[in-house]
Amino acid sequence: MNTHIMSNEKIYWFIFYNDQLLIEKKNGKHQIPYTPESPLKREIDIPVLNVPVPGHQAKTFRVTKPISVSEQYEWIGLRSSYDYLPQESYKSAGKAFEILHWDKNSRFCPVCGNLMELKNDITKRCPSCGKELYPAISTAILVLIRKANSILLVHARNFKGTFNSLVAGFLETGENLEECVAREVMEETQLKIKNISYFGSQSWPYPSGLMVGFIADYESGKIELQDDELSSGAFYTRDNLPELPHKLSLARKMIDWWLEQNSDETK
Questions:
Q1: What pLDDT, on the 0 to 100 scale, is given for residue 265?
Q2: For 106-125, what is each residue's pLDDT tens digit?
Q3: Within this chain, do residues 144 and 31 fall inside the same structural domain, yes or no?
Q4: pLDDT score at 8
Q5: Predicted TM-score of the model (pTM)
Q6: What is the mean pLDDT of residues 56-74?
């Protein structure tokens, strides 16, 4: 072990190699390492950053080379860790990953080019011109479109899998979220929608996003897919649904919500 922290107080250690998270196996369960010192050596000049976790000390750092671990530990992809870790640990791991991404991509001042200095856990300040930087979050929308007893599901070309999901897209400068919803649906499917309402939101640390979900109703139009974005899209009833996204996603939570609503209506 090699860490500058010499204390008996236990710390949560969020250690990453690329997008792989170090997880400890203990008593048949998986958990984030919780020890006074890091379970892995930290490479020289690799910073250790604090992770704001209520009621606990938590730290994070990267390793730049694949390191073999003992039977007590294993590397698991951050997304896959959703299936192994308690919900709060998974969310904290996502926060740690976002902080590391921000630190790596905000080394130099965007105004004068000088090296930035860490002011606190989520603030950097340029010692030359005083510019301050905070972690940037990319906001994206999801929209579940209802048409009678069916919903629109699409397969995007950038999906890593064969599942279908909801129309999605990033918020652009100068528009509000509802305008973004209507624009993305029109751009990607040529459909006009109405009754846009907020559903919920979800942190999406891959690497630093916020997903905001909306429900809307079909108004008019014929599906014409934006070919460079979508490979397929159609309205599906609950009885002929295609493969759906993983349960960790807000899109899946929205689809499951619709299935429950639709089930109640058909009884």
A1: 55
A2: 999 999 999 999 999 999 99
A3: no
A4: 74
A5: 0.90
A6: 90
Number of domains in the chain: 3
229 phi and psi, to 5 degrees? Answer: -110, -45
Residue 207, preceding peptide bond in cis (omega within 30° of 0): yes
Q: Evaluate whether residue 6 is within a structural domain.
A: no
Round to whole Å and give the CA distance between 95 and 208: 9
**Are residues 182 and 223 part of one domain?**
yes
Q: CB of 116 within 8 A of CB of 103?
A: no
Dmax over CA atoms of the chain, in Å, equals 67
Chain segment 192-233, per-residue pLDDT in tens = 999 999 999 999 999 999 999 999 999 999 999 999 999 999
Q: Which CATH number fits the domain that encloses residue 202?
A: 3.90.79.10
Among 85-89, 136-140, 209-213, 263-267, whose mean pLDDT is lowest? 263-267
Burial of 236 (0-12, 13-18, 19+ CB in 10 A): middle
Distance CA 206, CA 21 (A): 13
- The sign of the dihedral angle between the CA atoms of 178, 134, 91, 96 is positive
Helix, strand, or coil (residue 234): strand
Q: Please tell me whether residues 119 and 174 are part of one structural domain.
A: no
Residue 112 belongs to domain spanning: 106-135
pLDDT at 39: 92
Tokens for 230? 């979508």
Together in a domain, 115 and 217: no
Tokens of 177: 């979220």
